[in-house]
Amino acid sequence: MDLKEMLSVLGYQVVGEAGDGKQAVSLAREFKPDLVIMDIKMPEMDGITAAKILTEERIAPVLLLTAYSQQELVAGAREAGVIGYIVKPFRQDELQPAIEVALSRFREFCDLEKEIGDLRETLEARKVIERAKGVLMDQYGLKEADAFRRIQKLSMDTRKSMKEIAEAILLARELDKN
Which superkingdom, per the lineage (predicted)? Predict the structure, then answer.
């Protein structure tokens, strides 16, 4: 059975087929599939280079199905961010678990990436709020808790985030200096 037929039998929908690496990247950019399955050895652009592009652009996870198991190819695939690597010949019953694990790992990766972004944003907001509290404490002789409550109250009254209020306080301080 060819790969497309195997995938269909397993209940997956194939949204595109490419004859070379450049076309695989182009189709993936266009269709944004849940998973890209490709070989390492392809014309125009090899599978590892294509996988690196798809991974860097966060288009889709890549599962390589290949007849090549040389250590340098495996290392290249790992460095490119490939999420799975299956050496041919393989059986249909080996394909579905590899796909499901690859999809699950990619979702976990995306969730972690989002969590890291949220944490960075929270940390940045805290830094700005701390600086603004310091300005209020210096300018008005407030205690730390009172400065925080003032920022918090302004945030609620204006329906703006505490970070936005803190940034406004810091901007006003800069304008006063000039």
Answer: Bacteria
DSSP 63: E
Whole-number Å distance between alpha carbons of 92 and 101: 15
The pLDDT of residue 89 is 87
The residue assigned the tokens 């002789």 is: 141
Tokens of 138: 């210096």
pLDDT digits (tens, 9 = 90+) for 77-130: 999 999 999 998 888 888 999 999 999 999 999 999 999 999 999 999 999 999
Protein fold of 3-90: Rossmann fold (3.40.50)
For residue 1, the model assigns a pLDDT of 53
* Cut 0.70: pTM above it: yes
Tokens of 122: 């929270």
What residue spans in the chain does CATH classification 3.40.50.2300 cover?
A: 3-90
CATH 1.10.10.10, the chain: domain bounds? 117-177
**Cα–Cα distance for residue pair 63/101, rounded to 1 Å:** 10
- Rounded to whole angstroms, the Cα distance separating 169 from 130 reads 11
C-alpha 144/C-alpha 131 separation (Å) is: 11
Please check whether the domain covering 117-177 is classified as CATH 1.10.10.10. Answer: yes
Residues 165, 132 contacting (CB under 8 angstroms) = yes
pLDDT bin (cut points 50, 70, 90) of residue 177 is confident
